[in-house]
Amino acid sequence: MAEEPQVVEAVEEAPKKPVDPDFEPEIIVFACHYCAYAAADLAGSMRLQYPSTIRMVKLPCTGKLEVIHLLRALEAGADGVYAAGCLEGECHYLKGNLWARKRVDYVKKLLAEVGLEPERVEMYNMSSAMGAEFARVATEFTERVKGLGPNPLRRHGVSPHAAAREAAKDVAMPEEAPAGAASPAPDAASPSAATSQKGPAE
Amino acid sequence: MITAERKPFDEILELVDGRKKVLVAGCDTCVAICLTGGEKEAEILASELRMKAQADGREVEVEHTAAIRQCEWEYLDMIAAKVEEADVVLSMACGIGIQSMAEKFEPKLVVPAVNTNMLGMPQEHAVWLERCGACGDCVIGETAGICPVVRCSKSLMNGPCGGSHDGKCEVTTPEKEDIDCAWHLIWERLKAQGREELMYVNRPPKNWSKSSSGGPRKMVREEAKPV
Q1: Cβ count within 10 A of residue B157
Q2: Does A71 touch chain B (CB under 8 A)?
Q3: CATH fold for domain B2-118
Q4: Considering only CB atoms, which chain B residues are within 8 Å of A110?
Q5: What are B19-50's pLDDT values in tens digits?
Q6: Which residues of B touch A71 (CB under 8 A)?
Q7: What is the DSSP string of B206-221?
Q8: How many CA atoms lie within 13 A of B65 on its CB side?
Q9: pLDDT at A171 over 80
Q10: A67-75 and A96-114 helices, crossing angle to 10°
Q11: ipTM for the complex?
């Protein structure tokens, strides 16, 4: 009888990359107008705390998201990018969010090819009623990106948010000004920018 | 239409290694339809190359463009200015387009970013099946509109062979699972057409000199040549 293979030596776990406590990631969120964008608004109304690391690009549906939009944001130095669409089966345009997931998965492959971490991109699903989920996802993804460290492609003076907006300009929707603001802040973190400040939740 | 698949990224990197100005040139005809080498894909590859160069600390300028058809001189004129500026052109067109570029812009270095693989038909969105081998001597009039040259794994002219089981070909690999036996399909369709007798015709060996085996082919239509 053949001998059972024996474990000869345990492989030592790779040391964890030290997390820089001062690292504030810049994260681009391609958010669907029908769900995640409204969920962000709701999170604001609910006075939920979420990190100020996220910058939104509003789409009529995540189905409008293209591979190049994600790449342009990363190329401009975004530390992470995610798409937030409706719950599966609840897309306003039936399958837009399923297309988006495929494109995000494809970008993961492309990132692996160029030697960047595929974990820098992700697809999330939520409904417009899930303000708490929006805050949770923003927090979770921010923590993930903090663990990965800064995007090595970051360059001084290049705005990933501006690059993402420029890349998606043909499909992105205009964003409303935060309540009380005279004009839309060009880099407003979310429709409820006022609520995205750091600090303990009340 | 002509279909192609993008080469592995590492191979592409080797092809442009050491060049400072790279132009990724898509083609907006066949390879755009098969979602491999149109302007969109050229932009994606250019972005990938820039990211890779930057991550490696190399200074490389990568731009992208696309010709409506890389296989025609007139359309190449439209992208000539960008080509002239590049150290290397990474063409995403089929083999015809890549060679047209290399000839038109000689001695410019033009390298392929794709592998041209077949004359295929989109069976459904994002799935292509080989349908024609451009053999130069079409027989599908006798074979119920089904090409035995490319759809029979052995290119048999008098099939099926003994490897046909339940309508499937014996050739099966992880990439090519579930190939229909072309001669089984031919038999079924000939029956439906009431032309079974064609199955009993003994076809002599095919004249392959009309395919690429006879050397590079040339087609001239004298009546259509400009006066």
Answers
A1: 18
A2: yes
A3: Rossmann fold (3.40.50)
A4: 44, 48
A5: 999 999 999 999 999 999 999 999 999 999 99
A6: 44, 47-48, 51
A7: P-GGGTGGGSS-----
A8: 20
A9: yes
A10: 40
A11: 0.90
